[in-house]
Amino acid sequence: MPARITHRDARRLGVSPTDGDYAADFASLLTRYAPDLVPFAREITFAPGRKWRFDLAWPRRGVAVEIDGGTHGPRGGRHARPEDYMKLNVAASLGWFVLRFQPIHFGVYRRRDGWEADLERFAQCAQLIRETLARPCPSAVE
User: N or C: lower Cβ tally within 10 Å for the chain?
Assistant: First the structure.
């Protein structure tokens, strides 16, 4: 099983370790390594009458990011429940474009190929967000 970022490694990368809050890890990496994508909103609700929240969002562009954590849990982790699929379907019906990442996609885990590859993977995530934000907004999502 991959190891989590240690406090020492996080300091070396210039981010703060968040003890399992993968969305906070991703937000920290965005702030440090992709400042052109800042500001973004954290933990915003998007569906009237529901308590659903996006991990990160650019509300004026209708773009959100969901970080799927805990993929090794029972039944596939905490983002594999039927209500999670309904959340994404409702978001799409309201005009949101939702990008989903797992921690391994953005380098929260240390792997054999080292930190350079981790930051390269994070850069790919950031570029995908940039490209999505550059697309015409299909509808006003506010």
Answer: N
Partners of residue 17 on adjacent β-strands: none
φ, ψ at 115 (rounded to 5°)? -70, -30
- The Cα–Cα gap between 31 and 33 comes to 6
* Whole-structure pTM value: 0.76
CA distance 125 to 111: 17
Residue with tokens 């978001």, as numbered in its chain: 91
Domain boundaries, the chain: 3-134
Query: Mind listing the pLDDT tens digit for each residue in 8-59?
Result: 666 666 655 555 678 888 898 899 889 999 999 999 999 999 999 999 999 9
Contact 36, 23 (CB under 8 A): no
Using DSSP's 3-state secondary structure scheme, residue 119 falls into helix
CA 108 to chain centre: 11
